[in-house]
Structures are given as structure tokens and as C-alpha cells.
Write a structure and sequence with these properties.
This protein has 228 residues and is α+β, with helices and mostly antiparallel strands. It is built from ten helices and eight strands. Helix content is 41%, strand content 11%. Helix 5 packs across helix 6 (133-142) and helix 9 packs across helix 10.
């Protein structure tokens, strides 16, 4: 348990004398100050403008927030701050996202090389190219690619491509492991290196159903007419 720092009256805090930790890609105080964990950006802004925390909290309650000009929420320097209302802040980020979608310097060939050839995830490719992962996915779909995996295990490729794991893995392989060897969908997913939800979808598509009772550790896959 972190100890709370309690102060009396009007509070001004030197941001250099406070300890922080990363939370949701932003620096936040490791101890509560006046009953609240503060973002480092708030403390820096307040200290630079000689504002007490009570006055800053009043601005925040009125619907103001601090925007990072360079888009890096960890770069908490005064030159990088801009005080905006929540509405203007949301609009600004929406416009930035639209600009990302139509960026001229972002080449689709670069994205394909990273995601398809080098097997980067869309998030990793986005960080490498300084773009949103949604923008990476948008460009890939526009180029005719599709995610044949799951959200947790994405696998991008084109329809009919023989190199795609989704098409390469035959239904016979899944049936042999599930029906004959009595393995669970999770174990089959690990063996075939695909998502367990993909295994279940393929089985349901073939007309199979899990007849095991809820809470049972042993799955019983079969067809309705085969049920005893």
C-alpha cells in the first residue's frame, strides 16, 4: 500500500521531487497527493504557472485537459503542453487520425514488407512507421489483405494464398487431434499455432459440437447424430 501525502490548505508540489510510475503510457504519481494520484503533466503545468493543485483541479472540473503537442504522452515538458477543452481535444485527435489515413509519406509497400514479409503485428508496424495500428490495418485491407487469425493472434494474407496458415491447416488435421486423440481446442491451437477460437469455428462449420457438461475438463466433440 502506498502512503498518502496529506497537506493542509493551498498545495503547490515540485514535480521533480515526486516519484512516478507508468500507467496507460502516462507518468502518474506513485503516492496519492490530497487523496488523488496526479499525472506528471498536471503537476508540471501547475508548477510552471504557479497554480495550486486546488486551482488546477477546478480547471479540470470545468472540462479542461492538457494536450501533448508532439503526440507523446510521456514527454511532460512545458513547451509540449496545450490547454484545451475536452471537446476540442477529442476533435483534434480525430483530425490527426484522419491525417494518418491519408498520409502521403506512408507507403503501402513499407507496411506490406513489415506485416506480411517480416511478420510484424499492426501495432509494431505502427510504432515503427509512427502511425496508428488502425491505419496500418486500413492500408492492408485496401491492398486486398485480410486478417485470417484472431485479434490476439493476427495473421494477414490474401484469399487463396497457399502460404496462409488458415488455408494450409486442413480440417483433417483438426479432426484427427480433436476426435481421435481427444485433445482440447486449446492444445490443438498450440500445436497448430492458430487461435483456439479458430479451431472451434472450424469444428462448428463441419457440424461438430462440444457435448461436455459445463465445468468439465474433458471436451466431448461429436455430431448430433453421433451422440449416445
Amino acid at each position: 500500500m502506498h502512503k498518502e501525502i496529506k497537506t493542509v490548505g493551498q498545495t503547490m508540489v515540485d514535480p521533480e521531487k515526486v516519484k512516478y510510475y507508468l500507467k496507460a503510457n502516462r507518468w502518474i504519481t506513485s503516492r496519492t497527493i490530497n487523496g488523488k494520484n496526479w499525472y506528471r503533466s498536471h503537476l508540471v503545468y501547475a508548477y510552471y504557472h504557479y497554480l495550486t493543485l486546488e486551482t488546477l483541479q477546478m480547471f479540470l472540473n470545468w472540462g479542461f485537459c492538457i494536450h501533448h503537442r508532439d503526440g507523446n504522452p510521456q514527454n511532460d515538458v512545458m513547451e509540449n503542453f496545450r490547454l484545451l477543452t475536452h471537446g476540442n481535444h477529442i476533435s483534434l485527435h480525430q483530425n490527426e487520425s484522419l491525417c494518418h489515413l491519408y498520409r502521403q509519406d506512408l507507403k503501402t509497400d513499407q507496411i506490406i514488407e513489415l506485416v506480411i514479409d517480416q511478420k510484424f503485428s499492426t501495432t509494431e508496424a505502427g510504432k515503427f512507421l509512427n502511425a496508428n495500428n488502425s491505419t496500418i490495418g486500413h492500408r492492408l485491407r485496401k491492398a486486398g489483405y485480410k486478417n485470417f487469425g484472431s485479434e490476439r493472434r493476427p495473421y494477414w494474407g490474401k484469399e487463396g494464398d497457399g502460404n496462409i496458415k488458415y488455408h494450409r491447416i486442413k480440417d483433417k488435421q483438426i479432426l484427427d487431434l480433436i476426435i481421435n486423440q481427444r485433445l482440447s481446442a486449446c492444445k490443438v491451437a498450440k500445436i497448430l499455432k492458430i487461435g483456439d477460437d479458430t479451431v472451434r469455428r472450424r469444428l462448428h462449420k463441419l457440424g461438430y459440437k462440444n457435448f461436455a457438461l459445463k465445468g468439465s475438463k474433458f471436451p466431448i466433440w461429436g455430431k448430433k447424430e453421433e451422440k449416445c
